[in-house]
Design brief:
The complex is a heterodimer. Chain A is mostly beta strands. Chain A has no helices and 11 strands. Chain A is globular, with a radius of gyration of 13 Å. Chain B is mainly β. Chain B has no helices and 12 strands. Chain B has strands at 4-5, 10-14, 19-21, 24-25, 32-39, 46-52, 60-61, 64-69, 74-79, 88-96, 109-111, 115-120. Chain B is globular and about 40 Å long. In chain B, 34% of the residues are buried. Classes of the chains: A mainly beta, B mainly beta. The A-B interface holds A 30-32, 34, 42-46, 49, 51, 91, 93, 95, 97-100, 102-110, 112 and B 33, 35, 37, 42-47, 50, 52, 91, 95, 101-114.
Chain lengths: 116, 121
């Protein structure tokens, strides 16, 4: 079945550094990928919609300059948390769907970011 | 207003019993999709079942079935014959809009707050 690979699964970084998270669709083309954020014991909150070849669409309240999204190819989207701070510590998870397959949205395995 | 409401923060069920996880939703869009996902402690989101707003029959996938009551705007998940491996967080989610999904941009989901299910011996 379709697989979305997310890397890294866990990252610990110092405050002020930038962290890049990759999301790849392994056996299908994903024109759209989605980035979610999840705090402990809470729901997933959509951060942005990543569109191949164009700018990402951010949800209200999400800082575009803080969370840079690049969707350079049909199989890869990246989320860069710039100048990370402890409050950015969270679980980040991406998802992608196969065009025309309405009921299937495939998720990556998530990235646990801890900013010290 | 909450678009997806899961009123049960936690549920317990005995092994081999059936359990129902509640989900109500709110939308004015006549075309929408409802999803259930399972999230074990590892964090991955596992797709369980999907129900389209125009689907005539309730969705079923193995031990999972969705009790879709459109007029009441509810989409409860029923897990039959619970197993210890079913212990996890369960999320109900909704996608609004019908034709957008064709272009790939439509599967933007709104999630409920989740229900933590524990299956006991």
């Amino acid at each position: 079945g379709a697989v979305v690979s997310q890397h890294p699964s866990r990252v610990i970084c110092k405050s002020g550094t930038s962290v890049k998270i990759e999301c790849r669709s392994l056996d299908f083309q994903a024109t759209t990928m989605f980035w979610y954020r999840q705090f402990p014991k809470q729901s997933l909150m959509l951060m942005a919609t990543s569109n191949e070849g164009s700018k990402a669409t951010y949800e209200q309240g999400v800082e575009k300059d803080k969370f840079l999204i690049n969707h350079a190819s049909l199989t890869l989207s990246t989320l860069t948390v710039t100048s990370a701070h402890p409050e950015d510590s969270s679980f980040y998870i991406c998802s992608a769907n196969i065009r025309g397959v309405r009921e299937k949205l495939f998720f990556g395995s998530g990235t646990q970011l801890s900013v010290l | 207003a909450q678009k997806i409401t899961q009123t049960q923060p936690g549920m317990f069920v005995q092994e081999k019993e059936a359990v129902t996880l509640d989900c109500t939703y709110d939308t004015s869009d006549p075309s929408y999709g409802l999803f259930w996902y399972k999230q074990p402690s590892s964090g991955e989101m596992i797709f369980l079942i999907y129900q389209g707003s125009y689907d005539q029959q309730n969705a079923t996938e193995g031990r999972y079935s969705l009790n879709f009551q459109k007029a009441r705007k509810s989409a409860n998940l029923v897990i039959s014959a619970s197993q210890l491996g079913d212990s996890a967080m369960y999320f109900c989610a909704m996608r609004e809009g019908g034709g957008i999904w064709i272009t790939g941009g439509g599967n933007k989901l709104t999630f409920g707050t989740g229900t933590q299910l524990k299956v006991e011996l």
